[in-house]
Write a structure and sequence with these properties.
This protein has 351 residues and is mainly β. It has helices spanning 155-159, 182-189, 208-214, and strands at 5-7, 19-21, 24-26, 44-49, 62-64, 68-73, 77-86, 100-101, 120-125, 135-140, 146-148, 166-175, 195-197, 203-204, 219-223, 227-228, 234-236, 240-243, 248-251, 254-256, 262-271, 275-277, 290-299, 305-307, 310-314, 319-322, 330-332, 337-342, 346-349.
Amino acid sequence: MKKKNIAITAAAVTLAAALVLGGTYAYLTSETNSVKNTFDPNQNSVDINETTEGYDIIPGTSQDKNPTITATYTLDSYVFVEVTDATDDLVTWYIANGWTPLEDPTVNENEDDNVTTTNVYYQLLKYDDTEGETNTATLSVLAGNKVYYSASLTNSDMENADDDISLTFQGYIIQAEPFADAANAWLVVNGEGVAINDDTGVVYTDSVATAIDVAKEGETVRLLTNQTIEATQTYITTSMTLELDGHTLNAYHIMMQGDADLVLQNGTLNCTTGIAQDITNDEVYGTGDLTLTNVELTVSSGYAIQFNTGTITIDSTTSINHTGSNTYVIALFPEKTDDFIMVDCKMKLNT
C-alpha cells in the first residue's frame, strides 16, 4: 500500500538556538540580495475622423471623402476598419493601399466553420522603440480620399434606392500577441471568440469544448466569456491548464483520462457530477494529477471530486460547494491515491 500524505493546514514552528558567550547573545544570520522586477504597462487606442461632408450623388463625378484612422500603440497591434456599405451600389469606393481584406479566416480547424468577412480590412502595426515610447500611425481608409458615382446611374436607380444611403466606417485596435493571425484577433474584437489557446493563438467560436478537444500536451485553454458545455461528458485526454480567467464554466461532468493532468484555475466551475478520473472497460482508472487554484467549484449531484491514482492539490483560495443531498464531497480510493494536499480549502454541504 502506498503511503498517503494528507495536509489540511500548515503551521510553521520556528526554533531559535541562542549561543551564550561572554554575557552576550549572537545569532548566525545571513540574507540574500534583493531582486526587483519592473513591469512596463502597455496600451493602445484608435480614433477615426473625417473633415469632408455634404455628399451629392451626381452620375459621372467624384467627391472628396477622407475617413482617417489614428492609432497609438506601445506594442505590435492589429488595426481594423469595418466598412458598412448601405449605398445600394450608387457609390463606388476603393480601399486605400496598406489595408488587407480579412477574408476566409479559418476557425476551429474545421472547414465547415470558415467565415467570409469581406467588409473588414486590417493592418499590422509594428512597434518601433526608436520612434519613442508611444508610436502613432495615421491611416487613410479610402484610396485617393474619394468616392465615385458611375455615369451609368439613372433616375430609376435613384428612385429605387433606400432612404438611408450611407457609408459607415468603424475602427478597432487590438494587441497582436497572443493571436495566431489577424483573423483570430478579429474574432475577439467582434465578440465571437469564446476561448483561446494561449500557446497557438487560435481562437474558437463554437464552444470551449472544441478548444479542449484539440489542445496538445501542456497547452493552456483560456475562456474569453462565460461558457456552457452541453455534452454530458467533457474528456480531458491530454495534460492541460484550463484558465477560467474570471469567467464561469458550466459543465455536466469532467472526466480525466489516462495520465492526463488538469490544472483548473481562476474562476467558477459549476458541475452536475464534478471532476473524476475516468475508468476504462478494463476497470483501469486515470492516473493524472488534479490542481485547483482560486476556483469556486459547485456540484449538485454525486461527488465533487472522485479520484483513484495521482495527486490532488487544492489551494487556500479554492472553495468547494455541494448543493445536493450527497454527503461526500471528495471520494478517494485510499489504496492507490498518492497524495491529497489541501490547504485551508473551504467546503460547504447542502448550501
